[in-house]
Amino acid sequence: MTTFRKDPLLKIASVLLSFIQTVVVIAGVAIVAALPTMLVMKGWVIAEMASDKVPPEAFWGIMGLLALILVSLVMIWFFVRHLRRIVMTVADGDPFVPVNADRLAAMAWLSLGAWVVNIPTQALGSWLESVTEGSSINIGVGEDGTSLAMVLTLFILARVFRKGAEMREDLEGTV
Question: Cα-flanking dihedrals φ and ψ of residue 136, to 5°?
Answer without folding.
Answer: -85, -5
